[in-house]
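User: Reviewer 2 asked us to show a designed sequence for the structure in our supplementary figure. I'm pasting the structure tokens here. Could you produce the per-position amino acids so we can include them in the response letter?
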């Protein structure tokens, strides 16, 4: 009887479904880098496919694309909390990465790496990814598709490190028994972008990583084999770490004793079928895959491919709206369909919008709006030469907004050589058709003497035309002219009135200007409380100078209780946005009496302010160096020595040789 009960109990236990594992993944794809870094074509597609692959395997997926350093740090902090208590944590990174002195760093899209010293301030250390996974219980997996050629190898100056940045990434071994780190290629080697729309590594990961019943280390071996074969032996992925237990990322049955997946597994042949059809251009093939394997690893990718292959110019009878309109319509397009919801420039999904608009043009070659929408999509995707051609076609068809965007490409030298005269020609054409923003651009070129001789009267005339068209930035520019007495008699009351108009129109910089006028009694009665109100409005609208000025109020106790810690918080927020006053003020507080005071760290921040061209930092060193602590001054001299501009004693005495060295660092701001 006891034996029968035991068997019955065992049967009940076996028959119960296992508790579902909790699996969390963070996917980071950085593609839109500024020079000298290379814009990458594959990360958006890599992320899309990896997201579909992992979600199909039951992962909770978080995606971050084209992220700056602050956004990457915030995402890692949030993910560290999210993954705590999960069975499996995974981070996949597609983008640029570098190795310096044996440490690996991932490069945010806003990184500015003039020298190797900038690396630790501008990038994300690989160790930060490993720490973010600390709370995962069963498996911590990091996958790095970040071994592309180092874009800063020739441009980055060697100052403070033992060696210059190298090609590829360095091998990192983890002491944890449940940690694996997968690399797209071998240490010191360069990963390839491949011929397709995805990297070879991401392609292989999507094929093998979540195959039901396939153990994760076996999956990574299969990935390595695929990549090696696909690249003709030029790229050999590898991994570090090992596991003491069997871990599978995909749903389904585990291998039986023979090492094969059970015959009743509905996903047994999904990977093989996908390998046969994945390059197909026939929508029917993916429909067939979904019919055969509706709940398997590649189902979501198949659905995405079906959507990509669907007719993108399916004109709706009532509106004539196309997929191109839905993905890239612009608010300021004079030819936009009234029914189409406008998409902000930085919100365009250019990977989908570009083929959609190209297809729309093939089917409707005379439709004006499609060329502008294609130009916007190409422009956002950093495909500037093609954007230039699309904008020119739209401009030739009479689109004044395309004319303005074409002028901006000439002004910035994107997709063509920099040509201010040609930029002015197109800004004028756009302005003459009533484009208010282009009117302001014409004024700016007259103000700065670019493409035309400097002419302040002409600049002010164009600013007024733009302001009459409701353009807030032009109102701010008029305020600046009256504030500084440029081409007109200085009139602070008139300046304040124009700043108020601009602020009411949404100009964050003008909100800060109003706060400054109120705080200093310029053209209006001094009112600290009202100044703080405008600074807070400016900061909420993203203006870094407004954030810095809030910090000064907290530091000095103006209309708020004096609080240097709160001041530091605001200064750091401003500094993170590149505000030179914020950088300088962080240095000053770190050399003072805040909780985390550190004169050596203060000196490093001060050097950063000098390199950013902050005049007050240079002036203070030359005129009042004794305002800084002796420890600060010695550390700054050491930094100057490492930079190769100072050869004197580290005594904290700022004589002529130290001043010359500081000026040398300051003058490097333009390099």
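Assistant: Here is a per-position design you can include in the supplement:
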């Amino acid at each position: 009887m006891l034996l029968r009960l035991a068997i019955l109990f065992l049967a009940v236990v076996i028959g119960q479904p296992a508790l579902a594992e909790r699996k969390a993944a963070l996917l980071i794809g950085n593609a839109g880098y500024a020079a000298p870094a290379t814009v990458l074509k594959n990360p958006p597609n890599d992320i899309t496919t990896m997201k579909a692959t992992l979600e199909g395997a039951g992962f909770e997926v978080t995606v971050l694309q084209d992220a700056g350093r602050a956004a990457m740090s915030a995402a890692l902090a949030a993910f560290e909390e999210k993954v705590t208590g999960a069975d499996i944590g995974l981070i996949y990174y597609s983008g640029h990465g570098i190795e310096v002195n044996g440490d690996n760093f991932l490069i945010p899209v806003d990184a500015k790496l003039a020298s190797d010293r900038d690396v630790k301030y501008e990038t994300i250390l690989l160790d930060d990814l490993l720490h973010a996974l600390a709370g995962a219980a069963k498996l911590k997996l990091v996958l790095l598709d970040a071994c592309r050629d180092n874009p800063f190898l020739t441009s980055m100056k060697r100052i403070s490190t033992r060696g210059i940045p190298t090609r590829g990434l360095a091998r990192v071994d983890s002491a944890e028994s449940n940690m694996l780190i997968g690399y797209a290629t071998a240490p010191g080697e360069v990963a390839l972008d491949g011929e397709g729309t995805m990297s070879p590594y991401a392609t292989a990961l999507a094929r093998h990583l979540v195959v039901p019943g396939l153990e994760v280390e076996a999956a990574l071996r299969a990935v390595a084999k695929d990549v090696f074969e696909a690249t003709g032996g030029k790229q050999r992925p590898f991994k570090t770490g090992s596991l003491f237990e069997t871990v599978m990322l995909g749903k389904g049955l585990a291998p039986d004793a023979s090492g094969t997946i059970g015959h009743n597994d509905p996903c047994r042949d999904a990977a093989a079928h996908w390998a046969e059809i994945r390059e197909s251009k026939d929508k029917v093939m993916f429909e067939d895959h979904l019919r055969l394997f509706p709940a398997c690893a590649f189902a979501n990718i198949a659905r995405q491919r079906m959507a990509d292959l669907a007719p993108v110019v399916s004109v709706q009878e009532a509106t004539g709206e196309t997929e191109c309109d839905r993905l890239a319509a612009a608010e300021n397009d004079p030819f936009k369909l009234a029914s189409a919801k406008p998409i902000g420039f930085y919100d365009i999904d250019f990977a989908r919008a570009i083929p959609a608009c190209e297809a729309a043009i093939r089917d409707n070659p005379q439709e004006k709006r499609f060329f502008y929408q294609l130009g916007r999509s190409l422009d956002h995707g950093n495909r500037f030469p093609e954007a230039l051609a699309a904008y020119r076609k739209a401009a030739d068809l009479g689109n004044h907004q395309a004319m303005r965007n074409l002028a901006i490409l000439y002004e910035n030298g994107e997709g063509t050589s920099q040509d201010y005269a040609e930029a002015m020609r197109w800004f004028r054409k756009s302005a003459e058709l009533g484009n208010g923003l282009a009117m302001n651009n014409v004024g700016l070129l007259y103000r700065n003497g670019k493409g035309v001789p400097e002419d302040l009267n002409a600049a002010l005339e164009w600013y007024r035309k733009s302001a009459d068209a409701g353009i807030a930035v032009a109102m701010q520019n008029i305020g600046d002219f009256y504030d500084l007495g440029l081409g007109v008699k200085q009139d602070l009351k008139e300046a304040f009135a124009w700043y108020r108009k601009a602020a009411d129109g949404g100009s964050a910089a003008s909100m800060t200007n109003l706060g400054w006028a109120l705080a200093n009694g310029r053209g209006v009665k001094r009112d600290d409380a009202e100044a703080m109100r405008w600074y807070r409005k400016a900061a909420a609208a993203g203006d870094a100078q407004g954030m810095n000025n809030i910090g000064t109020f907290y530091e000095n106790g103006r209309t708020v209780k004096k609080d240097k810690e709160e001041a530091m918080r605001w200064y750091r927020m401003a500094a993170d946005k590149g505000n030179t006053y914020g950088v300088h003020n962080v240095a000053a507080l770190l050399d003072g009496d805040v909780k985390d005071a550190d004169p050596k760290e203060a000196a490093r921040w001060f050097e950063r302010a000098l390199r950013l061209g902050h005049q007050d930092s240079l002036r203070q060193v030359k005129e009042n160096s004794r305002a800084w602590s002796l420890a600060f001054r010695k550390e700054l001299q050491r930094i100057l020595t490492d930079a190769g501009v100072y050869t004197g004693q580290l005594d904290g005495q700022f004589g002529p040789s130290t001043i010359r060295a500081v000026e040398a660092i300051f003058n490097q701001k333009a390099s």
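For the response letter, you might also mention the following. Residues 69-83 form the longest helix (15 residues). Confidence is low (pLDDT under 50) at residues 1-18, 158-167, 253-264, 311-319.
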